[in-house]
Amino acid sequence: MVSNGRGRFIGANFVLLARQKQWANIVNLDKLTYAGNLATLRSLAGDRGHHFIQGDIGNRELVRYILDRFSVSKIINFAAESHVDRSIVAPDSFIQTNIVGTFHLLEVAKNYWQHLSEPENFRFLHISTDEVYGTLGFSDPAFTEETAYAPNSPYSASKAAADHLVRSFHHTYNLPTLTTNCSNNYGPYQFPEKLIPLTILNAYEYKPIPVYGKGENVRDWLYVADHCQAIYQVLTKGIPGETYNIGGESEKQNLEVVETICTILDEIAPQKTDRKSLITFVKDRPGHDLRYAINCEKIKQHLGWQPQENFSSGIRKTIEWYLHNPDWIESVRSGAYRQWISQNYDKR
Ligand code: NAD
Ligand code: DAU
Q1: Would you state the torsion angle of the CA atoms of residues 146, 290, 101, 91, taken in this order, to the nearest 10 degrees?
Q2: DSSP letter string, 253-280
Q3: Has residue 37 got a pLDDT over 80?
Q4: Which residue's CA is the closest to the ligand 2 atom numbered 11?
Q5: Mean of per-residue pLDDT scores for the chain
Q6: Is pTM beyond 0.90 here?
Q7: How far apart are CA 308 and CA 251, in angstroms?
Q8: Which residues are catalytic?
Q9: Mean pLDDT of 11-19
Q10: What are the sequence ranges of the domains in the chain?
Q11: Residue 97 CA, closest ligand 1 atom number
Q12: Percent of the chain as helix, strand, coil, to the nearest 5
């Protein structure tokens, strides 16, 4: 069972992978928040192995019903408010979903698991982020699973709190939990509020490309299909109680990311002036973490995972996906998303 996600980015990509691997009986619980997008569900219409249910992970009655009705043996918690800028402007929903929602999900899962006839097959996999570790200087060693938590934004603080709850449910009740802490993802179906899809669309449409501060911040980019494959390995081979870092071993400064996208688009769809001229340096994000970097030796050594895509191949695939899916882009841009942007974005 997948606790949420076909409506959005990583969960959507994971469900596609799981169906390719012939997993049956996937239940997809998603609240379909501000940009929740049923267009992402289209390719699974009529697929009897996938059940979509609109709802909140914090709704205990609903989650209890789903676990019983579908005899769920695995929960993957993708559900979250995930955008750092939104957490700075309006943190409430981050606390509600990421902390309180995860707590409710854990409580229901624990009670369900305690009454299973084969409890040893049950898993609760919690999808988290490298942002819980805080920020690095340019020459610091990368985050390992032993790095102390030091979250800096309301988003990362809410994810850190959830990670601690998950840890405590394993330690106290022996619930078979697993946690993954992953670096920045990019690829198909990512909502165009995050750096890469926003840049692709603005650059393609010849609009200004906002770069925070000097564009020197570093992120470790991972193609989403590689993240999903890592989640699959952790779910099927990971040891309960363990946490696994996942990263792309592909650190880039934001300016380099943006310039690369401009160069590729100039090649594919040339304009009179180079797209780099669209880059606009804007006010920095408050509390902006300078650098994230992931040491993913543990998952590589213990579970045999390895990213398949490097940044130059992954970014090309991603750009091509956005250029070939104008209907999906139109559907996420309409309605609630536009309204939220106009009400909140300029207050950042
Ligand atoms: P996303 O914002 O694209 O999707 C989140 C999904 O959760 C949406 O479908 C939304 O409708 C759903 N949701 C929100 N609140 C809910 C609730 N209360 N109940 C049920 N569903 C709810 O996020 P994403 O980028 O796909 O991230 C998925 C997970 O991976 C998150 O936990 C995030 O913290 C983590 N993560 C993301 C990245 C990244 O770069 N995107 C990297 C590392 C970890
Ligand atoms: O590290 C994993 C995290 O990566 C996930 O946990 C989060 O859910 C995900 O949103 C992402 O967080 P970031 O804040 O790193 O991603 P974002 O795409 O918002 O920003 C990436 C970098 O680009 C960051 O340094 C801020 C900068 N940026 C972002 C936007 C949206 C810009 O310079 N301009 C922009 O318009």
Answers
A1: 150
A2: EHHHHHHHHHHHHHHHS--SS-GGGGEE
A3: no
A4: 184
A5: 92
A6: yes
A7: 16
A8: 130-131, 155
A9: 91
A10: 2-187+224-250+290-309
A11: 18
A12: 50, 15, 35
Q: What are phi and psi of 41, to 5 degrees?
A: -85, -10
Q: Any idea which residue has 């942007």 for tokens?
A: 341
CA of 28 from ligand 1 middle (Å) equals: 13
**Lookup: tokens for 132:** 């819980």
Instruction: Say if CB 70 and CB 49 are below 8 A apart.
Output: no
| CA 98 to centroid of ligand 1, rounded, Å | 9
Q: How far apart are alpha carbons 116 and 171 in whole angstroms?
A: 19
**pLDDT 10s digits, 161-208:** 999 999 999 999 999 999 999 999 999 999 999 999 999 999 999 999
Question: Nearest C-alpha to atom 13 of ligand 1 is from which residue?
Answer: 79
Pick the CATH number of 2-187+224-250+290-309 from 3.40.50.300, 3.30.300.180, 3.40.50.720, 3.10.450.50: 3.40.50.720
157 C-alpha vs ligand 2 centroid, how far in Å? 15
Identify the band that residue 347 occupies on the pLDDT scale cut at 50, 70 and 90: very low
Q: Which range, 15-24, 37-46, 295-304, has the best average confidence (pLDDT)? A: 295-304
Cα 252–132–125 angle (5° rounding)? 105
